[in-house]
Input
Amino acid sequence: MEKLNEYFQIALDKVVFYAPKVVLAGLILWIGFKIVKKLNQLLDLSFKKAGLSDEIRPFFLSFLNIVMKAAILMAVASILGADLTSLVALIAAIGFAIGMALQGSLGNFASGILILTLKPYKVNDYVSIDDYFGKVKEIGIFNTTIKSPGLKTLIIPNSKVTDGTVINYSEEGVVRLELEVTMPYDEDFPKIKEIIKNALAPLDKIIKEKPLDIGIIAFDTHFVKIGVLPFVKPDDYWEVTYESYKNIKRAFSEHGIKVAYSEGVEMGAIGK
Output
């Protein structure tokens, strides 16, 4: 009986000792989470006013939400008598291990933050990234997704964007085609240039207000390489490319313009 009374007294002392701490910890937890929720709403409004995009705002809010709740939980653990030194050391070790394992992903994450903040391009812009051309469909924290003119979905790590050169064709609203055609050495360049100009004249989607540059860009072993550089709207890129080559091919055929393969095998008039 004495042992029972002794155990009861010990339990009662523990309850008396810990009950206020448990109540206080519960109050801090409840009130703290309420405050965090309210702060999240205020931060969301502030981020919207600051002009942060819809893609980056949720990530910042989520990160800050985790940090604030983690601080509250550590405060609660401290009130209940937990050894925070060991806990912090454990969290730091876990964070270091995760950071080492995800170095590439963290680099893409940091690049994603820069892209969403500095906005070198937007969704629906036509861009060239790492030699890939297409329309931006999504800007994520880790990757940028673009749709190529061939309807291929290209997922490009954001680190490629910040480490390389990005060409934004939609910034000016026009893009210049870089077409290449060839002519034989025995033909007259002014004549060929005039034929190409006339061949492209009927194409309405070529922007007539912009200059149409046609010039010699290289001398090959069997032919002269000519650059044809019309301006078009980004959405018309491939349509005008195909139509331009088709019209030039027809015009060369009509004028009997002959070219040669690089291997030296002569080819008849284009189109025959």
